[in-house]
Amino acid sequence: MESQNQILFREFNEAFVKGTTDIILASVTDDIVWRMVGTDTIKGIDALKEALAGMENDNKFELEIEHMITHGKEAAVNGLIHSTNRDGEQRHYSFCDIYRLNKHKDGKIKEIISYVLEV
């Protein structure tokens, strides 16, 4: 049986592949910091809203979570994302996200560090 934090992280990752921005925004603190290693760092919920608007496209995504480790206010989730554009071209990405919550029980995501590689 999944813990409350495991449910939060699974639903958060599923929201990304489905483009469900309301779930994403409801899961983070106003002062969210999201560092995407090798690219950008997003600071604050307004910057996150802007970044999410820029991610909208017609691609279809599938998510495979391989591992999810939670302990206290920290977690790590890794897996694969499969993307298919409207022309049928496929791309595959391996990811690992490290999370920090603002509190242990009923917390929101305060910090994310993401590692993403095309495979």
UniProtKB/TrEMBL annotation:
InterPro entries: NTF2-like_dom_sf (IPR032710), SnoaL-like (IPR037401). It comes from the Bacteria. SUPFAM superfamilies: NTF2-like. Residues 10-111 form the SnoaL-like domain. Coiled coil: none annotated. This is Nuclear transport factor 2 family protein. It comes from Gracilibacillus oryzae. The lineage of its organism: Bacteria, Bacillati, Bacillota, Bacilli, Bacillales.
